[in-house]
Every structure is written in C-alpha cells, then in structure tokens.
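> forwarded from #structure-qc
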C-alpha cells in the first residue's frame, strides 16, 4: 500500500519514497504474472544432462554402477587426448566406477597405463578394464581394502611390477553413510569412515612415495563437504576436511622432492556412492540446490585430474584444493 506523504518529510525525501514504491509496485506486478517453476538445469559439454527428479533408487553397499537405473556419464566424448600422460603409470583407488572410472578412461586416453584398486565391485572393475584397454592403455585390477596397509603396499608393488614404475597416485576410494543426528553416529561407523577415507589415503601415499620421482604427482579426492560441512554427513565431512589438510601438508613436505600433491573437491556427482547412501526420495532431488541445478556427471570432473596429473599442465601447482561444485564459490 502506498503511504501518503508525511507532514514532517522534506519534499525531496518524499519524492524518493514514492519513486521506490513505484519501482516496487512494478516488480510486484511482474512477480504476480510469473508461474512458479524450477529453473532449467545448466547443460553439460554440448548436451543436456540429467537433472532432478532423478530415479528413486537405493543401492546396497558398496554400490555397483551396473545396478544404477540412470547410468553415469564417464565416456567424455567431447574430450580429445593429446599425449599429456604418454608412458605414465597410474594407480587409482576406487577406480571401478564413478569419478575413478572416468579418470581411468581419460588417463588412458592421454597415454597412461592404469591400475584400478577397488573393494569388491568385480563387474564394474572389469568394465573399467575394458574401457581403459579400448583407449589403448594397459590395465590391471587390484581388489582389496584400502584400510589394510598391507593391501596398499601390495597394490603399489603389483602396479610397479606390471608397468615398471609409478608416476601418479589418485586416492579416491571412499565410504559414506548418512546419520540424522550425532547420537546415530556410532564409533564403529566413525572408524569405518575415517579408516577408509583418510587412513586409506595415508597408507597408499606412504606405499607409493618410494617409487615417485620429481615431476610425479599424488591427487586426492576431497569434497565440498570438507569445505562447508554437511549436517547428515558428520564423519564423512570430517574426513574430507582432513584430506584437504593432509593434501596441503603433504604438498609442503614433498615439495623439495619435486612431487606435487593436490586435491579435487567435487560437489554432488552422479555416482554409485550416493544412491548407496541416501533414501530414494532424497536421491530424486540430488544436486538440485546447486546453482547449476543438477549433479555433475563424472566426465565433468575427470579432466581436472588430468590437469593435475600432467606436468605439462600443472608443473607449478601444488597444495591446492580445487572445488568443482556447480555453484559460485564453494557452495553446493
């Protein structure tokens, strides 16, 4: 409602009030004529991407990509290799599916051989091996648990035995399970999350280090949850924050050896990790709160790993945490 001029208001001030009310009334009429609708999700590289509502599906852990109703996009047909990793030997944990699979495909497209460490998702891992070989790379599969330091040491040993060396370690394996409250978070679950997500990175990095040379790299997978927290992922967020700090500290520690250490911090990504955690009704809305209105596909994240692995791209970059969140700043 337009307010009448006050006897105590100077004429110039009264004119400003009326001008602002006119602007407000004009906008109110425009707002009233608009239909309430969800903004369109941003497109991917040259094509529309799946956006909420997503399939209402819940997967049994550890989550198999082959069981997903809507398959993640990892092929990156828009990405042309140029030999950035020609002759490199690489090891990717959690490389059977999701981000790890997408990274394996691009590493092979850039000329690398790839060792894929994974827990027990044998069908997914075999598919990844076929994809790597189709790109021209050699691939070995290494089933086991990264919580086990002996497995990590053996995975590195097998990689070096198969490919003759190790140039890039990608720490990517993760465990995630939501908890509505702190009371729901048991010590057993807390330990499983920490021992998988941060101890696993520690064990792998320690096993890999004797084989890395100047110009080689370690890349850790962090998360937007490690930047801003997540109220239902208390333990997972804590491990991702620890990974970010571990990345920066290890980068400082290894700088004198010429070994670069960096991290990628994705926002919501369409991989088996989340349908194996969230309820079907929550998965349907997954990623809709990002500024781009949808979750990322793995193929939209994997080029960052190539960038951080390749000395021709990132020889002067170490200790960074690169957010890829679908939102301005670090929000998701």
């Amino acid at each position: 409602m337009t307010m009448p001029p006050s006897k105590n208001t100077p004429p110039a001030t009264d004119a400003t009030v009326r001008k602002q009310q006119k602007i407000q009334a004009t906008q109110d009429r425009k707002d009233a004529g608009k239909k309430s609708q969800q903004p369109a999700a941003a497109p991917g590289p040259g094509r529309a991407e799946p956006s909420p509502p997503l399939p209402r599906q819940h997967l049994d852990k550890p989550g198999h990509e082959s069981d997903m109703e809507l398959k993640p996009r990892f092929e990156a047909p828009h990405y042309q290799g140029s030999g950035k990793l020609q002759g490199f030997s690489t090891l990717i944990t959690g490389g059977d599916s999701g981000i790890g699979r997408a990274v394996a495909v691009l590493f092979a497209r850039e000329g690398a051989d790839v060792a894929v460490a994974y827990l027990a998702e044998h069908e997914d891992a075999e598919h990844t091996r076929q994809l790597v070989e189709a790109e021209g790379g050699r691939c070995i599969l290494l089933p086991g648990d990264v919580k086990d330091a002996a497995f990590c040491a053996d995975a590195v040993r097998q990689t070096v035995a198969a490919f003759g060396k190790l140039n890039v370690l990608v720490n990517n394996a993760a465990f995630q399970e939501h908890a509505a409250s702190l009371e729901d978070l048991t010590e057993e679950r807390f330990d499983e999350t920490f021992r998988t997500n941060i101890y696993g990175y520690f064990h792998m990095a320690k096993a890999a280090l004797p084989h890395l040379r100047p110009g080689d790299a370690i890349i850790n997978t962090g998360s937007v949850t490690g930047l801003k927290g997540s109220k239902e992922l208390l333990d997972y967020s804590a491990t991702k924050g620890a990974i970010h700090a571990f990345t920066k500290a290890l980068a400082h520690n290894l700088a004198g050896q010429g070994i670069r250490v960096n991290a990628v911090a994705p926002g919501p990504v369409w991989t088996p990790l989340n349908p194996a955690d969230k309820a079907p009704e929550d998965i349907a809305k997954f990623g809709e709160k990002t500024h781009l209105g949808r979750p990322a596909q793995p193929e939209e994240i994997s080029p960052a790993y190539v960038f951080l692995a390749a000395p021709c791209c990132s020889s002067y970059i170490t200790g960074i945490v690169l957010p890829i969140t679908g939102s301005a700043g670090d929000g998701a």
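QC bot note: The first strand starts at residue 89 and ends at 93. The chain has one domain: 85-324.
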